[in-house]
Amino acid sequence: MKKNAIEVEGLVKLFGDSFRAVDNISFEVASGEIFGFLGPNGAGKSTTVRILTTLSLPTAGRVSIGGHDVVKEARKVRRISGVALQEVGLDSLMTAAELLLLQARLFGLSRPAAARRVEELLQLVQLEKFANKPVGQYSGGMRRRLDLALALVHQPEILFLDEPTTGLDPVSRRDIWAEVRRLNRELGMTIFLTTQYLEEADELADRIAIINRGRIVIEGSPETLKVGLGNESINISFVDQEAAQLAHSLLCTDAKQVQIEQKSVRLYLQGAATAVPGLISKLTDANIKPLSLMLTEPTLDDVFLEVTGEAFSEKALMSNQST
Amino acid sequence: MTIATQSDQVTSTNRMISYSWLAQILMMTARSLRTLIRKPETFVPGIFTSVFFLLIFNGALGSSAQFLPGFEGVDYIAFILPLSIISAALDSPAGQALVRDLESGYFDKLLLTPIKRSALVLGHILAGGITVVFISLVVLALAFLLGLRPAAGSAGILVLLAFTLLIGVGFGGLTVGVALRTGSSAATQGASFAFFPFVFLTSAFFPLDFLQGWLRIAATVNPVTYILDALRSLMISGFDLESLFFGILASLVISIGPFLFAVVSLRVRTCRQ
Predict the structure, then answer these.
(1) Do A98 and B34 make contact, defined as CB atoms within 8 angstroms?
(2) What's the sign of the alpha-carbon dihedral B121, B124, B128, B134?
(3) What domain range includes position B74?
(4) Which of A138, B81, B162, B223 is the most buried (most CB within 10 A)?
(5) How many CB atoms lie within 10 A of CB B162?
(6) Domain total of chain B
(7) B34 Cβ under 8 Å from any chain A Cβ
(8) Are B9 and A187 within 8 A, CB to CB?
(9) pTM over 0.90
């Protein structure tokens, strides 16, 4: 049996006397797994990462990383962890090569070994051409890639990525995703990733935990979560808002939940495909003509809505929901 | 694109060394110096202040000084040079360099490496000390051009630079401590103004014997007075062991406090919450 790379038990983090940033969470991450920690802004993701990476102490609970306690064996934890924090902390006056070299030497590589490692990593994150440019001149995507390289300098067993793609353009985001997958597949690296993007968690993680207001509300593989919810939906759009409103009042009893959003109506129900003919004839009878009709599988957005009663897209700054 | 393979991982892991504390400090000092050079605004104003003191006071008072009692036969440049040097020594850029690390978040990134906590600040403090010595060299070069002939010769110059390094490193702890406690560039800048009373409430422009009233009291208790006296004796009369002894003592007095303040502030800062 594989040992657990991360074990968190009853973790609590209080700020001040009363604000529970992290409120009694427990989870395990198996060695070699990509674990996604999904939640809106301010849910407690970064606080959790800071504790898991020894930057901050837990108020209560136990956290072990690779079998080492984060409170008592912080030094050992740092040896085996690679960390890329949400705010990319780089000295803008230094070049990528200098930052990587210093990092490698601080982790105990001899000068020649460090120099070799720098070359490898620059190649890995495709920054060879910019190796001697000050980081201040880098784009957001380049800084993230360099930050990832810095986290990998000492070949960690476990990689912590705190919102690795927040604020990146879609192309840079895809690059990071590809890299994360490759590190996991080729090196068997365990990856703990926080994100506020449903799509990202869905795309990358073997297993996810959804965190909201400091608590884990649900945990499982993205597929299980979506299937467990069992909600498919039908999205019907109309020529104008008026038609949509008519349709909404006509169909509001035909599904578990019916939402109206400008010119379209969304119905959540099981066995959506079989319900389509009935809905169409009902609309036709009332002389309302739908412009388009789309069947969608449940998304993590739906999962979030179901377990928290709040729409994820309203809480997240940006959502990649495809409606 | 290639990726490090499993076998690479084994070999480089085997080669991991645990660098000594001193080696880590040297790495961080080299890095701090490199970034200081790229941000000349951190040390150029210091050069201006020191050069300004030297030129203005020499120009304004240099000729009239000959008529003042106590200055007969004394070269005013030799008298004013130590002031210029000390003003440089009290203005280490270490605090500002550290604030940059705190603001950029690079400090946190370094905390995640196996580096000794003290090396994170000692690198900047030492680099600050070296910068201060460099500024002193610039000032000295100018003073030589203006006709400085130090009585204690080149050995005296070396002692003067040693003083500069000691004060630069020790007093540099003041701004570093403030930087660690506030993380604020403005507050750190503010702390460096502490240098004004230290420099001006002294025998800076006239020997202690000529000062009157409260200024005389302030100058008497101000350690910088004794440092100035020691350095002046080197420039004007040669090696005077008594004044050197008090000078070193005074340098330690103004160095140890700020340095300990930096050490304690580091502990407060890096104590995990």
Answers:
(1) yes
(2) positive
(3) 20-272
(4) B81
(5) 13
(6) 1
(7) yes
(8) yes
(9) no
Beta-carbon separation of B15 and A85 below 8 A: no
Helix (H) or strand (E) holding A248: helix A241-251
Query: Within the 83-142 window of chain B, which residues sit less than 8 Å (CB to CB) from chain A?
Result: 100-101, 104-115
Q: Does the residue B5 lie in any domain? A: no
Asked if the ipTM is above 0.85, the reply is no
Cα separation, A148 vs A138, whole angstroms: 14
pLDDT (0 to 100) of residue B7: 39
Q: Are A323 and A267 in contact (CB under 8 A)?
A: no
pLDDT tens digits, B152-183: 889 999 999 999 999 999 888 899 999 999 98
Residue of A nearest to B100 (CA): A91
In chain A, what residues touch B104 (CB-CB under 8 Å)?
Answer: 89-92
Chain-chain contact of A54 with B272 (C-beta, under 8 angstroms):
yes
Region of A9 on the Ramachandran plot (φ > 0 left; ψ -120 to 50 alpha; else beta): beta
Give residue ranges of A with CB < 8 Å to any B CB.
Answer: 53-57, 74-75, 78-79, 81, 83, 85, 87-94, 98, 102-103, 105-110, 113, 117, 120, 123-124, 126, 134, 150, 154-155, 182-183, 186-187
- Does the distance separating the beta carbons of B100 and A91 come in below 8 Å? yes
Inter-chain CB proximity A93 and B114 less than 8 Å:
no
Residue B4 falls within a domain, yes or no?
Answer: no
Please indicate whether, in this complex, the C-beta atoms of B8 and A120 are within 8 angstroms of each other. Answer: yes
Assigned token pair, A117: 């490692």
Q: Is A224 exposed, middle or buried (0-12, 13-18, 19+ CB in 10 A)?
A: middle
pLDDT digits (tens, 9 = 90+) for A85-120: 877 789 999 999 999 999 999 999 999 999 999 999
Q: Residue B144: inside a domain, yes or no?
A: yes
